[in-house]
Every structure is written in structure tokens, then in C-alpha cells.
Amino acid sequence: MIKAKKSLGQNFLIDRNILEKITSITNIKNKTILEIGPGTGNLTSYILKKKPKKMIIIEKDNVLATNLENKFNNQLTIINDDVLNVDETILFEEKVIVFGNLPYNISTEILSKWIINLKEHFWFECLILMFQKEVADRIIAESNTSNYGRLSIICNWKLNIKKICDIKPSAFFPKPKIDSSLLIFYPKKSYVKIKDPNNLEKITRIFFNQRRKMLKKPFNQLFNGNQKVLDKLKIDLTMRPQNINLDTYYKLACEYENLRS
After folding, report:
1. In the predicted model, is pLDDT for residue 169 greater than 50?
2. Which of 99, 103, 58 is CA-nearest to residue 81?
3. Is the Cβ–Cβ distance between 2 and 63 less than 8 Å?
4. Of the candidates 167, 187, 207, which is a domain's last residue?
5. What long-range pairs does 166-171 form, CB within 8 A, spacing at least 24?
6. Same domain for 97 and 152?
7. Residue 77 belongs to domain with CATH number
8. Confidence of residue 7 (pLDDT cuts 50, 70, 90)
9. Nearest to 206 by CA among 193, 192, 226, 220
């Protein structure tokens, strides 16, 4: 029996009802599929039953990668590497559907990498991903709530996000100590154009560095008290970072770029 490795954040999904639900969210017949962290291949089996045109899996664990190769023979392509080292944008000739029970210890790093590196043309049709519930709550949080922050702003920039369901620890082996949530991400047809996504990352980092403090200090640090920006975006410096809505943060990134150009 294969042992889950704590160091890699491994918890294998075993609940058949959940596995069926995940693979029924969208039509995957004759589509190209990418699965991240397939583990023992439980979800992989359910995906293959739906007859995708092509399937690629990325599995970092050498033992699991070998096991998957033996289990599925020539039904898929295995990339035995860390997903953070893989450039997904050059793997495919067409848009793909991505499934992932992401390792909890690097889930936000994976998602942030994908979003920051997104070009004008999306490499995926949708992302169907599982996170710790508390991380999912931060991803889908709205302004003026305690969960709202950098992750909410960055994730919602180019993507529409919908929560599918929460998943109890009993659906996994070994059982994690927390609940999980399943989210689906779709590319937005229109979004605020920011030349360098790292500027959005920088602005949110500085603004949320002291999330309980008023906006005056971080705004002055970035914009040197520029009144035109305040008036244009209707920002009140007595507010706190969680009081500014998504769109205003995206426009702030654009104003920051304009001032530096």
C-alpha cells in the first residue's frame, strides 16, 4: 500500500461520490485534460472513463509516478516533476481542462503562479481545483469581509470563480484535519489590462502588509500622496485595505504603471 507523504501535502481522494461529482462538472469527452497531483490515480480513473481525447498528469513523487505509469500503461502522459517547474503554456496546442487536488502546502503558490503568468490568450478552458476550505474562502471573499485580501484580488483579476461544494475529511486518505472546498475558475472575457502583473502583486502586498491600518501610509508609499489618483478612483484614505473593491485595486495598478512610465 502506498503511503502518503506529509512533506508533499498528500491526501488522496477516495470518496466515489465526490470523484463522480468532480468529473461531471463539465463535459470532458474528447477534450485535453491536465491533472495536477494525481496521487494514487483515483480521480484519474474517473476522468479516463469520460473518454478525454488526451490526458497529461504532473506528479512530483517518483514512487507515485512509477505506480501511475504501471497502472494506466499508455492511456496518458506522465510528467514526473514539480508543477512549479513546469511551463503549462507550452505543453498544449489547444485549451485544456485542468483538474487538481492541489498539495495544500503549495496550493496558493501554484494558483498565483498560473495567474501572474497568464497572457492575453488563456491556455485553459477552466480550472477545477480543490483547496483547504480556509484558502478557498479567501479566494472567493468579497470586499468588506475578514477573508478578503491579496489572494482574493489576484485570483479574481482575470477569472470568474464559483464554489462547487465543501468536502469533509472523511473523503480522503489519510484524513486531513480540515475541510476542503472545490472551486471552478473560468477565464473572464474582459478585465482591467495591467501591463505587468507583478505591479498588482506589489500593490496588494504593500496595502495588506498592515491590513488593520488606514490606507494613508501604503498609499503615500506607492503614490506619494497623489491627489489626482485619489480623486479619480474616489479613495478615502481613512478606509482600510479590505474596504477597497476588486476593480479599484486593478485600476490602482494601472495608475501606478502610468506614473512610473
Report:
1. yes
2. 58
3. yes
4. 187
5. 166/133, 167/15, 167/18, 167/130, 170/15, 171/13, 171/14, 171/15, 171/18
6. yes
7. 3.40.50.150
8. very low
9. 220
User: Domain ends where: 131, 155, 187?
Assistant: 187
Written as one string, the DSSP assignment of 53-119 is: SEEEEE---HHHHHHHHHHHTTSSEEE-S-GGG--GGGT-SS-EEEEEE--TTTHHHHHHHHHHT--
Could you report the per-residue pLDDT of 76-100, keeping only the tens digit for each? 999 999 999 999 888 888 999 999 9
Q: Give the distance from CA 41 to its chain's centroid.
A: 21
In this predicted structure, which of 5-19, 23-37, 189-203 has the lowest mean pLDDT? Answer: 5-19
- Domains in the chain: how many in total? 2
pLDDT at 10: 54
Strand (E) or helix (H) holding 131? strand 124-132
- Confidence band of 103 (pLDDT split at 50, 70, 90): confident
User: Is the Cβ–Cβ distance between 91 and 134 less than 8 Å?
Assistant: no
Looking at the structure, do residues 169 and 204 belong to the same domain, yes or no? no
Asked whether residue 160 falls in the same domain as residue 247, the answer is: no
With bands split at pLDDT 50, 70 and 90, how would you rate the model's confidence at 48?
Answer: very high
Residue 1 domain-assigned?
no
Range of the domain at 208: 197-260
If asked whether residues 16 and 72 sit together in one domain, one would say: yes
> Would you state the pLDDT for residue 196?
94
Whether 256 and 133 map to the same domain: the answer is no
- What is the three-state SS of 204-261? HHHHHHHCCCCCHHHHHHHHCCCHHHHHHHCCCCCCCHHHCCHHHHHHHHHHHHHHHC
